[in-house]
Specification:
Number of helices of chain A: 13
Strand content of chain A: under 5%
Helix content of chain A: over 70%
Distance between the termini of chain A: 63 Å
Shape of chain A: globular
Largest sheet of chain A: none
Structural class of chain B: mainly alpha
Oligomer: heterodimer
Largest interface: A-B, 42 and 48 residues
Distance between the termini of chain B: 18 Å
Number of strands of chain A: 0
Chain lengths: 311, 350
C-alpha cells in the first residue's frame, strides 16, 4: 500500500494501541498528584486483564468484564494504599510487592483461561463523524474503551485544575503539611487517589484482554505498566501531554509491525527502547523553570506524619 | 495509632517478626494452592522440601543462589551509600552481553584465562551500565530509581536487538550460539559449592571493607548523611559513582556467572528476574550484606521449590513463587515498619 493510504491505518492503530497506556497513565497521574507513588501498576494491569477476561467469559458480556476488572484493580491497590498512607511504609518496596502479587496471582490462577476465545469490544464507528476524511477512521471508528480513554483526558484535567476536590488533591501531593493544616482529609484523599489509579489500571488491563489483544495469555501486558509509569513522568504530570505520550507509544507499536511498508529499516528493538529513552531525556533536561513546570509533585513518595518534626 | 503495651513488648522479641512473616507467607501460599485446586499441605511440603532433599535440586538451588546472591549484594551495597539500585536487572543483562561478546568473538584467549576473562567482561559491562544512572544522579539530579528502571528496559531492547539481528542463531532463532566447554563453569560439586564459597567470601570481604577501611567508612557516611559527609571533606560525588558502579559490576558478574554456569548462551528472554528478586532479598536482610546472601539462598530455594510444583500439581503454575514473594515482601515491610514506628514512639516518650 502506498503511504497516503497507510497513514490513517497507522494513526488509528496508534490511537488504539496507546489506549491501555493512556488509561493506566491517567490513573497513576492522579495517584502521583496526590503524592503516592505506585510502582505496582504493571501488576494491577495484569490482574485487570485476567479478571476482565475471566468475568467476561463467565457472564458472556464484555462490559461486565470491564466492571469486574476495575473493581479488582481498585481493591488490590488497597494493598499498597493502606500501608503506604496509613503506616508510612516505603512506597517503592510496597509498590514492588504489589507488582509481584498481582502478576503472580493472575499467572497462577489464570492457567485455565489461556487460549479460550471470549467476548471482545467491537469497533463502534460513530455515525456521521466516522466519514470525515483522516479524522474519521483515526478517532471515530474505534471501540468504546478508546472513546472512554479520550474522554477521560479532559475530564481528569478539568477535575485537577478546575474543581475544589481536584485542587485539594494536588495540594496533598505538593505540600501535605499545608493540606493537613487547612483541613483536607489527607489520608482519605491519598487512598482514594490510589484506588482510582488501581481501578484505571484494571480498566487498562481489561482494554488489552477485551479489545486490543483479545484473550488471555501469560505476558499479555508485557511491560506496558512500566511504560505508563514512564509516560506519566514524561508528560510532566499533565493529562494532555500524557495523551501525546500515549500516542507516541501507540505509534511506535504500530510502526513496529509496519516499518517495512514505510521503507524504514529500523530494528524493532530501537523502537522498543524509545519510550524509555524519551523519558530519561525528559528527566535529564527538565531544568529550572522547566523542571518546575514538568516536575514531580514535591511530596511524591514521601509518607506524611502529622507529629513528625521537620528535618 | 497507639498500640497496647503488651503488643509493644511482643514486638521487641527478637525473631518474632521473622516468625510472623514466615507464618503469614505460608498461610497465603496454602490459600493460593487451595484456590488453584491443589491440596494445600501437600503442595506446601513439596515447595519447602524439594530444594533440599535431592542432590540435583540442591545443586539447582545453589546454581540460582550464586547470581541471585551477587545481585542481592549489588542492591544492598548501593543502599549502604543511600542509592536504590533497581537496575540490577539491566546491569546483569549488559554484563551478560559483554561476557557473550568475549566468549563468542574474542580470538586467541588461552584456556586458563577464559573464565577470568568472562567474569571480568561481565563485571565491566555491568559497571559501565551502572555508570549512566550514577552520572545522571550526581550531575543531573535524576532519581536513580527512575533512571535505573528505564535503563533496565533499554537493556532488554538492546539484547533483543543483537539476538534477533547480528547475533541471531542458525535458522534465525533469537539466541546466540552456545559457548563451548572451555568457557563454562563446572556444575559438579566443586563448581557449585565453590560458587557458594565465592559468594560468602565476597559478602564477607565487602562487609569488612565497609567496616574497616577509610573508603568504607566514607561510603557509609554518605549513606547516612551526604551533607555531613561533604562537611567532613568526603568526595561525595566520587563515592556515589564508584559505589553504584561497583554494584553494577556485581550484577554484571552475576550475568556472566549465569551465562557460564547455567544458560551458556544469550537469548531474548534471558533474564530469570534476579535483579528484582535481589531487591526483595536485600530488603529482607535490611541491607546487611551477609543477610542478603542468606536471603538469596532462601529465595533460590523458593524458586526451585516453586518450579517443582507444576510437575506434581497440574493446576499450579510456578508463578505461585511470585505471589509468595509479594506476600513475603509485604508482610516483611509491614512488620518492619511497625517495629520502626514502635521504636520511634518509644524514643520520643523516653
Amino acid at each position: 500500500m502506498a503511504v497516503p493510504e497507510l497513514l490513517p491505518i497507522l494513526l488509528a492503530a496508534a490511537v488504539s494501541a496507546g489506549t491501555p497506556i493512556l488509561l493506566a497513565g491517567l490513573g497513576e497521574l492522579v495517584t502521583e498528584r496526590a503524592g503516592v507513588l505506585n510502582l505496582g501498576v504493571e501488576g494491577l494491569m495484569v490482574v485487570g486483564a485476567w479478571v476482565g477476561f475471566g468475568a467476561a467469559l463467565a457472564t458472556g458480556s464484555a462490559p461486565a468484564g470491564v466492571g469486574a476488572a476495575m473493581l479488582a484493580g481498585g481493591a488490590l491497590s488497597l494493598v499498597h494504599a493502606l500501608p503506604s498512607v496509613l503506616l508510612g511504609v516505603n512506597q517503592v518496596v510496597s509498590g514492588l510487592a504489589l507488582l509481584f502479587l498481582g502478576s503472580g496471582l493472575a499467572s497462577a490462577l489464570g492457567t485455565g483461561l489461556v487460549g479460550q476465545p471470549g467476548p471482545a469490544f467491537a469497533p463502534l464507528p460513530l455515525p456521521g463523524l466516522a466519514t470525515i476524511p483522516l479524522l474519521g477512521p483515526v478517532f471515530f471508528s474505534q471501540n468504546a474503551l478508546v472513546y472512554a480513554g479520550l474522554l477521560a483526558v479532559p475530564l481528569v484535567g478539568l477535575f485537577l485544575h478546575r474543581t475544589r476536590p481536584g485542587l485539594a488533591l494536588a495540594v496533598c501531593g505538593e505540600n501535605p503539611r499545608l493540606a493537613d493544616a487547612v483541613g483536607v482529609p489527607l489520608a482519605q484523599v491519598r487512598v482514594a487517589a490510589t484506588v482510582f489509579g488501581g481501578a484505571m489500571a484494571g480498566l487498562a488491563g481489561a482494554s488489552l484482554s477485551l479489545a486490543e489483544t483479545p484473550g488471555w495469555v501469560e505476558g499479555l501486558v508485557g511491560g506496558r505498566g512500566w511504560i505508563a509509569l514512564a509516560m506519566v513522568i514524561f508528560s510532566g504530570w499533565s493529562p494532555a501531554r500524557l495523551l501525546l505520550g500515549a500516542w507516541m507509544f501507540g505509534g511506535l507499536v504500530a510502526l513496529q509491525f509496519r516499518a517495512q511498508a514505510f521503507g524504514l529499516d529500523l530494528p524493532v528493538s530501537v523502537l522498543k527502547a524509545v519510550p524509555y529513552l524519551a523519558t530519561l531525556a525528559v528527566l535529564v533536561f527538565a531544568r529550572g523553570r522547566l523542571r518546575h513546570r514538568l516536575g514531580a509533585p514535591a511530596a511524591l513518595g514521601l509518607p506524611y506524619e502529622r507529629d513528625a518534626r521537620e528535618s | 495509632m497507639k498500640t497496647p503495651p503488651t503488643l509493644r513488648a511482643l514486638a521487641r522479641l527478637p525473631g518474632l517478626s521473622a516468625l510472623l512473616v514466615a507464618a503469614t507467607t505460608l498461610l497465603a501460599c496454602a490459600l493460593l494452592f487451595a484456590a488453584a485446586g491443589a491440596p494445600p499441605l501437600d503442595a506446601l511440603w513439596t515447595l519447602i522440601s524439594v530444594p533440599v532433599l535431592s542432590d540435583y535440586d540442591r545443586a539447582e538451588t545453589l546454581l540460582k543462589a550464586l547470581p541471585l546472591g551477587l545481585c542481592a549484594l549489588s542492591v544492598a551495597l548501593s543502599m549502604k551509600v543511600g542509592l536504590w539500585n533497581i537496575g540490577a536487572e539491566g546491569q546483569l543483562l549488559m554484563g551478560t552481553f559483554a561476557a557473550t561478546a568475549v566468549g563468542l568473538f574474542l580470538p586467541g584467549v588461552p584456556d586458563a584465562l577464559r573464565l577470568p576473562a568472562l567474569m571480568a567482561a561481565g563485571a565491566a559491562g555491568g559497571a559501565l551500565w551502572a555508570a549512566i544512572p550514577a552520572l545522571l544522579r550526581v550531575y543531573g539530579k535524576v532519581s536513580e530509581i527512575l533512571s535505573t528502571l528505564m535503563l533496565n528496559y533499554v537493556a532488554i531492547a538492546w539484547i533483543e536487538g543483537w539476538v534477533h539481528g547480528p547475533w541471531r542463531g542458525a535458522d534465525g532463532r533469537p539466541y546466540t550460539a552456545m559457548l563451548d566447554a572451555s568457557w563454562r563453569l563446572s556444575r559438579g560439586f566443586i563448581g557449585v559449592y565453590g560458587g557458594l564459597l565465592v559468594l560468602v567470601l565476597t559478602a564477607l570481604g565487602l562487609h569488612l571493607a565497609l567496616r574497616h577501611t577509610v573508603v568504607g567508612f566514607e561510603i557509609r557516611l554518605v549513606g547516612a548523611s551526604p551533607r555531613a559527609a561533604r562537611y567532613a571533606g568526603v568526595p561525595v560525588e566520587a563515592r556515589l559513582i564508584a559505589t553504584l558502579m561497583a554494584a553494577g559490576a556485581l550484577a554484571g558478574l552475576a550475568g556472566a556467572v549465569e551465562l557460564s554456569g547455567a544458560q551458556h548462551r544469550l537469548a531474548a528472554d534471558y533474564s530469570p528476574g534476579y535483579g528484582y528478586m535481589a531487591i526483595l532479598a536485600a530488603f529482607l536482610a535490611r541491607t546487611n550484606l551477609l543477610g542478603a546472601v542468606i536471603a538469596a539462598l532462601g529465595l533460590a530455594a523458593l524458586a526451585v521449590g516453586g518450579g517443582a510444583l507444576p510437575v506434581s500439581y497440574p493446576g499450579l503454575s510456578s508463578s505461585v513463587v511470585d505471589v509468595t514473594q509479594g506476600v513475603l515482601l509485604l508482610s516483611a515491610l509491614l512488620f518492619m515498619t511497625w517495629k520502626a514506628r514502635q521504636a520511634a514512639a518509644a524514643a520520643r516518650e523516653a
